[in-house]
Amino acid sequence: MSKPSSPPPERKLLTGVLCAALMVPLIGTAVPAAAEPNEMTPYSCSDSSFSNSFGYFDTSYTRAGPRSKSTDSYVYMNVTSITSGRTIMAHVDAWNGSSYIDASQGNDYEATNGTTLLLNWVIEYGYNSAAIAYRKSNTVGGVDVAGVWSPDYC
């Protein structure tokens, strides 16, 4: 049986040099892309408290805010305490510097204990401040409610 012939030394050297040259562009190219500033440190994600005691026949809105809003995300609301068996209705208002504008397109969202994400168009409407407007649901009787909210859901 004959022994296979090996390539000439010049070819081995050329192959090694070519392999090394092809690897050089790959070194240091696996750098992760930088995150957008708002993704790294959202501006309006800290919680602010809200609370109200609605009277027996009171169905008027009260507001928490306004606060600066940085992204087109939901507004976060977390009801931590509410009269047993009761709910509230909430929506998002944009603040234009002198008055409130409904930024939930007429939608009210029912909330009870726990988290509710409020759909809104504050940023899309060209504003940068938001408030939550809330009232007790159409029920007879008083309602005590408390919780936290933030303009940006993070």
Please give a structural write-up.
The chain is mostly beta strands and 154 residues long. The chain has a domain at 47-150: Jelly Rolls. It has two helices and nine strands; from the N terminus they run H-H-E-E-E-E-E-E-E-E-E. The strands form two sheets. Strands 2, 4, 5, 6 and 8 form a five-stranded antiparallel sheet that branches. A hairpin with a 4-residue loop joins strand 4 (88-95) and strand 5 (100-102). The radius of gyration is 30 Å and the shape is globular. The protein starts with 8 loop residues before the first helix and ends with a strand. The relative contact order is 0.26.
CATH topology of the domain at 47-150: Jelly Rolls
Helix and strand content put the structural class at mainly beta
**CATH class category label of the domain at 47-150:** Mainly Beta
Question: What is the element string, with H for helices and E for strands?
Answer: HHEEEEEEEEE
Enumerate how many helices there are, as a single number. 2
Shape: globular
Low-confidence residue ranges: 22-42
> Would you identify the CATH architecture of the domain at 47-150?
Sandwich
Relative strand content: 35-45%
Major beta sheet summary: 5 strands, antiparallel
What's the β-strand tally? 9
Share in helix:
10-25%
